[in-house]
Amino acid sequence: MSTGSKEHIAKETVTLSRGEAAARLRSLADEVEAGWMAGGSRPLRLPESVTFELDIACKEKHGEQRYEIEAEIHWAEPSAS
Q1: To the nearest whole percent, how much of the chain has pLDDT over 90?
Q2: What pTM did the predictor assign?
Q3: Number of H helices, E strands in the chain
């Protein structure tokens, strides 16, 4: 991957019940805690320390209030020498 580029490894957009969404988040949390996350065609290894970002927003769209929660976890892999 070249410098400054972004490779989408996996992206998911589905409609779920609250319970299904919570179960999916719990599954992701278990993967993060274990230090391994399914990343499409390859597993991703997470270091012990990561940066966590949470954004809760309310936007008006087409005359209705729309809410969204975005959670991001950031880390960098050491460069191979």
Answers
A1: 67
A2: 0.76
A3: 1, 4
